[in-house]
Structure formats: structure tokens, C-alpha cells
Amino acid sequence: MVGRVEDEAKPPLTDDPAGLIENLPYRIELWAEADGAAVERVLARAFSMPLARAIFRAARSEHPNRRITLRRGARVIADSTE
After folding, report:
1. Partner of 51 for a Cys bridge, out of 3, 46, 58, 73, CB 3.0 to 4.6 A?
2. Domain regions of the chain by residue span
3. Model's pTM, two decimal places?
């Protein structure tokens, strides 16, 4: 009887070797709490505007007292402080 050998060279599902995540046009950013002068981290990236807006709304409810921005490139589409 021959057993099946799993392919150990297969990368984990979270790997992004081609940098495809970085190529998604929309990003939702959480700004630094202390001074709000810099982006603390990118919460998400999205391919479409409707998805990006849904993520932006969810981020605002998760972080009600923080600045959240939705951008496409350098253009700010939505800002939670406005």
C-alpha cells in the first residue's frame, strides 16, 4: 500500500509572494492615537469601492475615537474626522 505524501513545499495561504495585496487600490488606515500625525497601520486593502467603504464603516465602529482614512493612492476618499 502506498500512502499519499503531502506537498510540504506548498506555501501557507497567507503568503503573498507576488505582492498582490500591495496592488489593491484602496486602503483603510488607522492613524496614531497620540498625535494623529502619522498612519499607525493599514487595517485593510480592497479591490472595489463598495468593499472599501464597508470596511471603512466597520473600522469607524471598531475605533470610534480614532482617525480612520480611506484612500486610493494619495487621494483621501473618506476621513472619519470630517
Report:
1. 46
2. 24-79
3. 0.73
